[in-house]
Every structure is written in C-alpha cells, then in structure tokens.
Amino acid sequence: MKTIDKKVSHAFGKDIYLLGKFKDGRFFWLEKARWDCGWYWGFGYIETYTNNKNPSTSKDIDSHQHYNYLCFRKSESYNHEKKCFERGKYMYTLFDNPDIESLVVSEREAWELSDLMKSFYTLSEAAEIFNRGNSHLTSNVSVDLKDATIFDHINKDLLPSIFTRIYDILTPDISDPEGKNNAY
Question: Is the alpha carbon torsion for 61, 64, 70, 74 positive or negative?
C-alpha cells in the first residue's frame, strides 16, 4: 500500500483529516468529532467531496459513510460470472480494504487507528445505555442501567482522549516535513 502525505483541511464548517485515496481516485476524509444533540459524540464520518483535491472549495459532499464500513466487516465484491456478491476476508484495518489504493498512515498506525475507532464505537454504545437506562429496543425494561457518572466519564474524559490521539496520528508532523517517521 502506498503512503501519501497527511493533510488537514476544512469543509462545510468542519475540520477534516485526510485518511487516504480509493482506487477510483477519490480522496476520503475523517470529520472531526462534534458534540451533537446535547448527548452524544458525532464521529467516525468519512466523506469524499466534489472537489477531490481541495475539499475547502467543494460545492458539495460526494459521499458520506462511517469508518466502521471501511473496516470491521468482511469485504464484498461482485462476481460477474455468478451474478452475485461474494464475501471476502475480514477487514481489521484500512490496509485490509481492497478498495483503498493509498493511506496517510503506516501499517502500525493503521492498527492503532482501528483500535481507537473500535474503542470509540464501543464506548459510544455504552454511553447511550448509561444515558437512556437500556438499549432502547423497548420502553418496558426490568433493569434501569442509567448512570450519569459513567455517562459523563465516557463523554468528558475517555472519548476526548481517543479523539486527541486520532488527531495526533492524522496530523502532519511539522518536525518531520518529509514524512520519514511514517515508515512502518
């Protein structure tokens, strides 16, 4: 997998971090986390833009998906001979995704990024339970799991520390302008 330079930009009122480039030539970016609706972190959003190389001048978002669609699942490809989709191997990191041509991270950083993102998704789900008191599948529950202290700890301490580390991984290192420390 080729490594490309790390880049931070701004599009549609939000900071974005370049993650890589798909084989079809589109660059894909991770949106910075934001506190949404007063009770959860909006994060893990991956976007491509109509101005592929300079999202800050884009007229629109070309595509929107979640990080956990790029990883944490089995790859799929269409078999034209059989006329059906086939599942491939499980994708643990962005390196495992067959649709990606190049990344801004080394293989070691990709593993750390995947671990941090998986931790984000797991903690976010836990925070929702501690906020609502259940998994919100029904209103008739026999156990109330609501706990404001744990909810606050996850959202004010744990998740922000995950975001900080992710931004550190994805931000260009000004002490290493040629990217020599990116090598695995």
Answer: negative
* Contact (Cβ atoms closer than 8 angstroms) between residue 131 and residue 151: yes
Amino acid 139: pLDDT: 79
Decide: 146 and 126 in contact? Cβ < 8 Å. Answer: no
Strand positions, DSSP E, the chain: 2-3, 8-11, 14-22, 27-31, 34-36, 40-42, 45-49, 61-66, 73-79, 84-91, 100-103
Q: The pTM is what?
A: 0.86
CA dist 174 and 164 (Å) reads 17
Structural domains counted in the chain? 1
Which residues span the domain enclosing 48?
A: 2-182
**Hunting for tokens 């499980």 — which residue is that?**
90
